[in-house]
Amino acid sequence: LSLLRFLSAELTRGYFLEHNEAKYTERRERVYTCLRIPRELEKLMVFGIFLCLDAFLYVFTLLPLRVFLALFRLLTLPCYGLRDRRLLQPAQVCDILKGVILVICYFMMHYVDYSMMYHLIRGQSVIKLYIIYNMLEVADRLFSSFGQDILDALYWTATEPKERKRAHIGVIPHFFMAVLYVFLHAILIMVQATTLNVAFNSHNKSLLTIMMSNNFVEIKGSVFKKFEKNNLFQMSNSDIKERFTNYVLLLIVCLRNMEQFSWNPDHLWVLFPDVCMVIASEIAVDIVKHAFITKFNDITADVYSEYRASLAFDLVSSRQKNAYTDYSDSVARRMGFIPLPLAVLLIRVVTSSIKVQGILSYACVILFYFGLISLKVLNSIVLLGKSCQYVKEAKMEEKLSNPPPTCTPGKPSSKSQNKCKPSQGLSTEENLSASVTNQPIHQKENIIPLLVTSNSDQFLTTPDGDEKDITQDNSELKHRSSKKDLLEIDRFTICGNRID
């Protein structure tokens, strides 16, 4: 064996990639998955953002009308007599409570001075503001996690049948807790918007750059962790809520800046590059984060269509006869997005920034309100149609014909399961089209509907692929046996990703 022969062997040595075809095919599929992630992720994000927009517009458009109808029924009830044991339907009671909370918190926000808060934050150092902004983001997630529990407790306490043994502290304490929560959460979001406004108006833009870099720190904290489909669903819902909230915060910042410059349209073009930079950094961070999470955890891009079908199922099921919750509340439970504090803050900023004087101004306000109603109705119709399409594609129509679980927690009832079967005379498509257009039917009072769980909590785990070896399949089956369903993932676990 000589050096010349060794060099000749090194220069002419060959190898065949087809001897390890499965490995290289898997590597190629991973590349294709990373390339598909931006498109599939943005489909989910756009659908989720429009869901949040629909729940947000509901507070400004349909909720006042529903409150008016509920009060009208309450005032005209003596004319019709007490034919029903309830003065108001449970949904009407919840609407009145939401409206009263909204009005009280709006008047309470008048005692919070936005200008003093702005100058107080502006006088702080850059590093201190960066720490404050991070603390505000954590506090916002904690408030969102606990806030919907407070509101749900209020709604259930106010509408619970009176025949049962009292197991609560009363409606009035729950009501004051809800008012205090909405007020504090609105102040928290106002501080966030003020900090963002200070970053926009700083001369060297250093604070804005540091706040944007905080998004890239999020990649480090999530990419190199173990994720399953349920954990990724939590993160996707959190990203949807965070992106929509950032859009509303940017709107508030633009309104405050335009007011300071007497609504000069030239100043809007000064703000436009910074707004685009913040939005672009948010989108880029989400794409990179989800792309590497799916790569490191062998999750296919098709999982985002499952997530989208899960969100669509919530929308369609809320339009059924046996609906157990309002749609805006289901969005709050799923994504952690609670529209009441954000709506209080936006109304406060708009009313302080825009002065309405004269008949023409009031006419413009009325036309704008009708425009919001038209946008809400159009958005709801399009979302409902798309949701029905996604539910059919996921073959989940049969689950829509099953009523929500009506047994008490911890005591499953076999009789109720036998009684509640889908109708045999209609096809699944007819059930789907008929269920989303009818009003909910009032159920018997001896049945307790659950607020958090539903029949949709039995859904969806699809295989990641058929190209894995036997050991990977066995480990994946072990993970799936202990996995919760996607529709059980809500704001309870949205504050931090629980890693098994």
From TrEMBL:
GO annotation, cellular component aspect: centrosome; ciliary basal body; cytosol; endoplasmic reticulum membrane; nucleoplasm
Upper lineage: Eukaryota, Metazoa, Chordata, Craniata, Vertebrata
Biased amino acid composition, Polar residues: 411-435
Subcellular location: Membrane
Similarity-based family: Belongs to the TAPT1 family.
Transmembrane listed as a keyword: yes
GO biological process, one term: positive regulation of cilium assembly
Keywords (A to Z) from UniProt: Chondrogenesis, Membrane, Osteogenesis, Transmembrane, Transmembrane helix
Coiled coil: none
Membrane association type: Multi-pass membrane protein
Record PANTHER family: TRANSMEMBRANE ANTERIOR POSTERIOR TRANSFORMATION PROTEIN 1 HOMOLOG
Entry's transmembrane regions: 45-72, 93-112, 175-200, 337-354, 360-385
Location of the region described as Disordered in the Swiss-Prot/TrEMBL record: 399-435
Official protein name in the record: Transmembrane anterior posterior transformation 1
Membrane keyword on record: yes
